[in-house]
Amino acid sequence: MTNHLIIGQYVPGHSVIHRLDPRAKLLIVFAYVLIVFLANNAATYALLSLFAFAFAALSRIPFSFIARGLKPILWVVLFTLLLHLFMTKEGDVIYQIGALSVYEGGIKQGVFISLRFLLLVLMTTMLTLTTTPIEVTDGVESLLGPLKKMRVPVHELALMMAISLRFIPTLMEETEKIMKAQAARGVDFSGGRFSERMKAIVSLLVPLFISSFKRADELATAMEARGYRGGEGRTKFRQLAWKPVDTVFLAAVALLFALLCLLRS
Amino acid sequence: MAEPILSIEGVSFRYPNQSDYAVQNVSFTAERGEWLAIVGHNGSGKSTIARMLIGLLRPERGAIRLFGRLLNDATVWEVRRRVGLVFQNPDNQFVGATVEDDIAFALENNGIPRLEMVERIREAIRQVHMEPFLHYEPHRLSGGQKQRVAIAGILALRPDMIILDEATSMLDPRGREEVLETVRRLNRQQRITVLSITHDLEEAAKADRLIVMNKGEVMAEGTPEQIFRLGSKLERIGLDLPFAVKMGSRLRERGIPLRIGYFTTEELVEELWTLYSKK
Amino acid sequence: MDIVFEKVEHVYNARSPLARRALYDVNVAIRSGAYVAVVGHTGSGKSTLLQHLNGLLQPTSGAVKIGEETITSHKRPKQLKPLRKKVGVVFQFPEHQLFEETVEKDICFGPLNFGVPEDEAKRKARELIKLVGLSEDVLVRSPFDLSGGQMRRVAIAGVLALEPEVLVLDEPTAGLDPRGRKEMMEMFYRLHREKQLTTVLVTHSMEDAARYADEIIVMHEGTVWGHGTPEEIFRDADKLAAIGLSVPETVKLKQQLEKRFGVVIPSPCLTLEQTAEAIQQLFAKGERP
C-alpha cells in the first residue's frame, strides 16, 4: 500500500468548483496567474485574496486540508518576506537594529510579494485538488486543439500525459517492492556513507528502469493489438461539456481583471 | 464443412539476430465457436504464434488466413478489431485511467461514435460482471479483475475470437477461475472462438482441441483425450499431466486395470467404482 | 531459530484516514528446522505476515521473537540489520531485484552489504550458482542476458548467499512452467534438508503445501485461521471450502472415494504415491461395501 504521497492530490467532491469544466478551470487559473502581477496596492491585493478564498470556499474542501498542503512552501514565503524586509530601502525607516534597518517600503514589498506567491500556489493547488488528472489532461488537449493545425502532436502529448499518470501508482508500488527486496539483502536506504547510499540508489533505480522499459514495451504492444494507430480517425469517449456556470466563472475573472486595472495605483 | 475461422499454413518465424526459429513450419486451423488450446513449455513458441495472428509479428514464411482472408497490411486493422488478445501481465495492458476509459480505448481507436460507445461499454462490463467497478482506477483492482476489464475491452468491439496469451499465469487461483469462467461463458453463449495459450494442462483439458508445441514445432494435435494418451511424452517436454491422468497411470503401475481416457477426478472415481464393484 | 508471534497486529498507515488493519491477534510459533507453508487468499495477510519475519515490517502492537531478537513497535530498524542476514527472503518474481553488471557481482551484493570479505563472497557465488542448477560460466555474464527462469535462479542464489538460517519464500514458482516449478520446489526442499534451514513457504498451491510442509498455517482475513500438520488441516475440506480454499487433488480424490465407496481411507493421501498405495490397499482388501 503506497499512500504516503498522492500525486495531484485530487479530493473527490461534488462542489460547483469540482463540476466546472476542466477547460474553464485551466483558463481561470491561468488568467489568475497572469493578473496577479497587476496588483500593486492594498486594495488590489485584498481583491485578489477575496477571489482566491471565495474560490477555495466554494470547493468545500476543508481549509485545514488546504493549509496542510501549503505548509511546505511556508519557508519560501518566510524567506521572501525577510529578504524584502531587509533589502528594500524605500520610504521611512521603521526599525533599526545595528547596521540593519527596516524601511516602510520593505514591509510593504515583503508582504505583497509573499502574498502574491501564496495566492499563486493556492489557486494552482485548487486546480489539482478539484480536478482529476485525467480531466486536466482532457482540458489541456482540448484547449491546445487549435495547435494541431500547426502540426503540434497535441493528441500524442495528451495520451503521454494520461499514461504517465495512470502508471504512477504502479511504479510507486514497484519501487516499494524493490526497496524491500534490496533491504532484505542488507541495503540500508535510510543512512550510511555516501558510497553506500549511492549503491543503494543504484540497486533501486536499475531494476526500476528495467521493469519500466519492459512495461513500456508491453504496453505499446497491447495498444497496437487494440487497434491504436495515432490520433487520426479516433473518436473520444470523454467529452467535455461547457455549461453556463463555466461562462459565469470566466466572467468573474474578467470582472476581477477590470477591477484590478481600475484600482491599481 | 464450413470454412475455418482461422488457418495458418507452414508458418515460420525467427526473432531478429537469432539463428534458431522460434516457430517452425506450423500449420493448424480453428473452427468458429471452438475452444482451441495451444500448450507448451515456456519458450516453445506459443506466444510468438499469438503475436503473429494479429499482425504484431510477421511470419518469415507461410500464410495466415483469418475469416477467409489473408492477413496482410490491408487486413490487419480489421483483424485487430475482430480478434482480441489478452496478455499475460494484467498491469501492462491497462491503458485507461479508469475501467470505463480502458474499455473505451479500443472503441476510440476504431472511431466508434461516442453515444454507441457508452452503450457498448455498459454491455461489455455487464458481460464480465464488473458493473460496480466502472469508475475504478486500475491500482484498486485485483489481477483477475484487470484481466476481466481487458476482456470487456475486447467484447466491446464485438469480436469473433479471443486469444488468451498466458492470461491467467500471473493470477491467484481465484483470479484464474474468474477469468476462465468468464471466457467459458462467452465461448458457450456467444460462440466466440477461443484460442488459449497456456502451460497449464488442467486448463487445457477443458478445451475442445489441443495443439502441443515443442521447440517451435507442433508436436501433437488432437482432442484432450488423444493428447493425454501421450502420457509421459508430455512430461518429458516440461508439461504436467492432469491429476486424474497422473493418478491413473500410477494405479495401473500397481496393477489396477484402469482404462485410459478420463481427465477429471469425478471420472476417475466412477471408473474405480465400476472396477471395484465388479470384483 | 524459533520464531514466535505474540498478539501481533499490523495496521498500515496507522493514525491516518487511510488506516487499514492487515493483521490482528496473530499468535503462532514456527519451530527451528520446520518447513512451514502459509496459505490463504490474496489479502488474507500472508504477505504482511512474512514481512514481519525479517523486520521489513514491525508490528504495530504485539511482539515477534526471532531467535534471540524481539521486534516490537518500538524496535528501531537500525538494530534489525543482523536479523536480515539470518532470515533470507525470496520475494515473488525475485528476478526483479537484479541490477549488477554480472551474475557474480549480483550474488555477492548481499554478503558484501553484511561485511563478508570479497574473496569469500566470490567463493560463495561459485558454490551457489551450481547449487541453484546453473553452470559456473554464467557468473561472468550479465544477468539480463539470461532467460527468465535462469534470472530467477540467480536472484535466489543472491539470497542464499547470505547463508540464512531461515528461508522465507513468497510464491517462488509464480509464472514458471510445470517443469520449472517442480525443479524449483525440489531444489528448495533439498536445501531445507541439507542446510537444516527453517523454511517458510507462502503459496497458493495446496499440492506443494501437502507435499513439502511439516506444518501449514492458514491465514484468513488478517489472522491465523488454522495451524497444524497437512493431515490435520486437510481433514476438513468443507471448512476450508467455506473460506474459499481448496484441498489438494489427492485429498479430493480420497474424499470422493470415501463417499462413493462408503469406506474410510486411513491414509492422509497427501502425495500421489501415498494415494496410489491407499487405493491399492482398498482394492487388495476386496471387501464389498
UniProtKB/TrEMBL annotation, chain B:
UniProt main location, coarse: membrane
Keywords (A to Z) from UniProt: ATP-binding, Cell membrane, Membrane, Nucleotide-binding, Translocase, Transport
Protein name according to UniProt: Energy-coupling factor transporter ATPase
Family: Belongs to the ABC transporter superfamily.
GO CC annotation terms, alphabetical: ATP-binding cassette (ABC) transporter complex
Location relative to the cell: Cell membrane
Listed Pfam families: ABC_tran
GO terms of molecular function: ATP binding; ATP hydrolysis activity; ATPase-coupled transmembrane transporter activity; cobalt ion transmembrane transporter activity
Membrane topology: Peripheral membrane protein
